[in-house]
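Would you mind writing out the residues of a protein together with its fold in token form for me to study?
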Amino acid sequence: MKKFLSLALSLLLAAAACLLSACDDRGGPGGYEDDTMSYSHLVYNVRTVAQLTGEAAVTDTLAGWQIGGTDLGFPLYNSRNGTMYLAFGDTFQRNTDMTGMWRSNVLAETKDFDLSDGLTIDGFYTGPTGLARAVIEGVHEDGKEMTKIPTGGIEVGGTMYLFYMSVRSWTTPGEWLVNYCSCVKSEDDGKTWQRVYGMTFFNDLEGELLDQAVTLANSDVSLQEGAGSVTPEGRVAPNFMQVFPVDGKDGYIYLFGLPQGRSGGAKLARVRAENIENFEEYEYFTGRSGEGPVFAKGAEGLAAANKADGAYVIMPTVGEISVMYNAYLKKWMAVFYKANALVFCTADTLWGEWSSCETLITAAEYPGLYGGMCHEKFSADGGKTFYFFLSQWMPVYNTFVMEVTLV
């Protein structure tokens, strides 16, 4: 499996990091109460609160659902039942070597919104045995479809939508190849899930690779081929291989789009909330005219956004973006991976202009870091304190609750 460096290298690097930083058994510097830091004049401190998943988490997910290690944890709030769902990526029984009961994704639920002492998980999307199972499983075949990874979710009118990317192959750490990006939905509060074939973006592929991607994109959540009939015409969108949806609070749902891997920048689409499943109604940011944004609709708009450098709302590099409104700053906030650090930037509008990046934490203190999933519901003191989920693939593979206090 190419997603990670070899276990031997991981352990060697982890040992070196521990010697240099007197790390605790979690892999971070010092104890949870003491590992405070700040790299930005906007940040008073950042600290580790608790492990989010695994045996040592507030809720032991290994004993309950055979989840020893996982990553990401994109928040998806359902206003209909007041529950937050957390979409994790590749999941295993063992967090030391990422083996045992590999599931491409798992979905937790919680009604715990006070993260100052960690997060209590109430349950997972489960199979007949009661163990956590994937919402939509990957084929697990390298060079075809290694896995399906969540990239963000949103609830619209009582329906939950979860976007994911079909990863063809892991190449090097931080880079991967994608077939397509699409969506599943649940109309019964996460009990069952169905594909939304119309909400599909294809990568810029040709020949056999494109044919393979089309076949995969028309498979249902049980991997049954031929369930859909979506085609690549008007849907080739290499910068929307990772889609993070945001309620713009103006009647529109906005989609932040990233290409495969972590080397690209963020582009933007939007659609009226009532038309979220109507692909032809999507509009794409292509640049600015004076002080205002320019959005172009449909296939022509997507083609224009593909070509225009001015269509970037956040310039490269951006990895695993998460966007929320921060009431304390009275601005939108984007948290993402950039150059061996987790950073954030802010803007008055979702199309920007976005500020320069402020560093939250770096790989020097948290080896193998990525992620940064956040949600305005996971905030305190009117947004002065907010929480995000840190992922690390070394020295152990897992997620952690992080607390940020702004100045």
About this structure: The first strand starts at residue 43 and ends at 51. Residues 7-406 form a domain with the Tachylectin-2; Chain A fold (CATH 2.115.10). Residues 7-21 form the longest helix (15 residues).
